[in-house]
Design goal:
eight-stranded mixed β-sheet; EC 2.7.2.1; acetate kinase activity; 14 helices; cytoplasm
């Protein structure tokens, strides 16, 4: 079965066309700067034919129409007709409490999903546009929603309820939801396979580290706690997000700096994290280079980031009642030997001894701890698209 995986952002669409018979990628692409000046689409086929279209993409509908034309292009495409695509798997960011697993999309589901835009105003609306457009352009294909929050619906109530009046949870569903769930599910399952362990008897902590970062405790194949919460803002300090702070800081800043609610929200989401600490960049590669050259605030930002990971790993090890594997994934987790080294040296008390040579690896599946360690430290590149395609295939086949 041919499945198209679609991930719609506010001004971009990432996509992959997959043949699920061999779980092979036939084509991958990115439409970017949708609705902006300089929009373009870059597409690469499994035969390494590259198509770059620099043209006006006024909205997601225009972008998806162009994407589908590229897939059937006689020279650069990989299929003869769009009807060959039997299902479309959509990355859907926030499913609230309603969607605890992937679902086939129908009108009732869409109405409920649109209501949830209140919980994810930056992410759900473009997801909805992408779904509606694919429904119109490919009415023959089964449409499936795969939710970032679904994997975390196994978190127990004592871990997801906040210490605020309970009636506010009942009224507004204010609670921990967690994100990056599709990544955490894939990576924890793949790690168990690599180590020859049953997912039903496996305690793992997955560190999804990128511009947005989250850590999840996985026990017997289920998420039992995670660092992100009601929104993707809490937990680790990230590229531009603050991570955990004292909530009283918010009204304090609003008063002292004469900030509106919107301005303080913008400050915490777009001007904080390692960018705010370093005053230099949200890109960890820039920070690592600057730290080597003696930039103290770049070094401070990296130290704070690593310390936060160490702290959360300790907390989640306690929540799990032990730990079999510590797994790094995401752009930083897969590629930054410096961040991994900082974290693993801080966790030496667990019996983890880092293998310096193996830790130099970038973007590959590798065990970076020495043999005999009480806890295995490893890198597993994430593959959210494959996870979305698998869940889409399961629903579409039934």
């Amino acid at each position: 079965m041919l499945i198209l995986v679609v991930n719609c952002g506010s001004s971009s669409i990432k996509y992959k066309l997959m043949d699920m018979k061999q779980e092979s990628v036939l084509l991958t692409g990115l439409a970017e700067r949708i609705g902006l000046v300089g929009s373009r689409i870059k597409q690469v086929s499994h035969t390494e034919k590259e198509l770059v279209l620099e043209q006006d993409l006024p909205d997601h509908k225009a972008a998806l129409e162009t994407i589908l034309k590229g897939m059937t292009d006689p020279q650069y495409g990989v299929i003869e007709d769009i009807s060959m695509i039997k299902a479309v798997g959509h990355r859907a960011v926030h499913g609230g409490e309603k969607f605890n697993k992937s679902v086939i999309i129908d009108e009732e589901m869409m109405q409920e999903f649109e209501v949830l835009s209140e919980l994810a105003p930056l992410h759900n609306p473009p997801n909805i546009v992408g779904i509606r457009t694919c429904q119109a352009l490919m009415p023959h294909a089964i449409q499936v929603g795969v939710f970032d929050t679904a994997f975390h619906q196994s978190i127990p109530k004592h871990a997801y309820i906040y210490g605020i009046p309970y009636d506010l949870y009942e009224k507004y569903k204010i609670r921990k939801y967690g994100f990056h769930g599709t990544s955490h599910k894939y990576v924890s399952g793949r790690a168990a396979e690599i180590l020859g362990k049953s997912a039903d008897d496996f305690k793992a902590i997955v560190c999804h580290l990128g511009n947005g970062s989250s850590i999840t405790a996985v026990k017997n194949g289920e998420s039992i706690d995670t660092t992100m919460g009601f929104t993707p803002l809490p937990g680790l300090p990230m590229g531009t997000r603050s991570g955990d702070i004292d909530p009283a800081i918010i009204p304090f800043l609003m008063e002292k700096e004469d900030l509106s609610i919107g301005q303080v929200n913008d400050l915490l989401n777009k001007k904080s994290g390692v960018l705010g600490i370093s005053g230099l960049s949200s890109d960890f590669r820039d920070l690592e280079d600057a730290a080597v050259e003696g930039n103290e605030r770049a070094e401070l930002a990296l130290s704070i980031f690593a310390y936060s990971i160490i702290k959360w790993v300790g907390a989640f090890t306690a929540a799990l009642g032990g730990l079999d594997a510590l797994i790094f994934t995401g752009g930083i987790g897969e590629n930054s030997k410096d961040v991994r080294e900082r974290v693993l040296k801080g966790l030496a008390y667990m019996g983890i001894e880092i293998d310096e040579d193996k830790n130099k690896s970038r973007g590959k599946e590798v065990i970076v701890s020495k043999p005999g360690a009480g806890v295995t430290a490893m890198v597993v590149p994430t593959n959210e698209e494959l996870m979305i395609a698998r869940e889409t295939l399961e629903l579409a086949s039934n």
